[in-house]
Amino acid sequence: MKNIVATTPDGASIAVTIQGAGPPLLLVTGLGGLAKFWAPAAAELGKRYTVITFDHRAVGASTRGTAPLSVDLLADDVIAVLDVAGADKALLLGHSMGGAIGQRFAVKHAARLKGLVLSGTWLRPNRFMRTLFASRLKLLTADPVGYAALGTLMGYPPEWLEANWHVMETAMASAPQAAAQIASVTERIHALLAFDGGEDASTLPGPVLVQGALDDMIVPAFLQDELAAAIPHAAYHAFPDGGHLFPVSRTREFVQALGQWISAI
Question: What is the pTM of this model?
């Protein structure tokens, strides 16, 4: 495993981790923004691919930079990550907000893309997500630990979380309580709610895989259906369960399905 740092044009330092060997596979996490989200899956995927992960700007070991935060800016950050990793092109898998980043990256930087996996993500703003994240924003400022607990409760299947309660304890212990942390989460939520991929979905370069879980309570399955329908050439895979964070709760099935799709393209 190798840890390196990418630098963006506006001065952000992006902490990048590279592991494994094989074709480059870039994993882009969601709202939490931490590379360690991918640790269970990356350990398996690294047996077949060069797995590249990173902490988003202003998250974890990465710094903020000066540019206004948006999904477009986060998509541009991926260029700096690929450059420092020495990858001319990569297969990009984006989960949740990472899927929004992946959609914008595919539009803006198609020449750097081998394929696109949109995992547990969405096409455009909708009433469900606007209401959900407006409520989460209120809880974030009033009770940060409660914010972290609720996100974890909604993110995993109840029986899996009960059996892996350390995940809840870790989430609550690392809740964003400092003013700077709360400000960072707030601007990231505003950025994800401002994302709209509707105009570009039909022109996304292929190959594309859309995947989701039928019991996802944060980005429900009907939003995966909408996204897949908007991309005429997309393959679609629905996990029967696993919650929103199925790459963690159903790592084996997630890795297996991804490997099968990659082998077929």
Answer: 0.97
